[in-house]
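Letters spell out the chain; backbone shape is given numerically. Both lines appear below:
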Amino acid sequence: MSDERPLDPADGGVTTEARGRILLMGLDRPAKMNGYTPQMAR
């Protein structure tokens, strides 16, 4: 199960994948070297 929810095309996005009881999260922000922003927590 995958769910990709881009914040803004310029910001990249966050991908999530559920594997049983584990949730994997990936950052897709190559321009910012996959840096995390407070907006991504929303």
User: Anything to note?
Assistant: The chain has one domain: 10-41. The longest strand covers residues 12-19. The chain is about 0% helix and 50% strand.
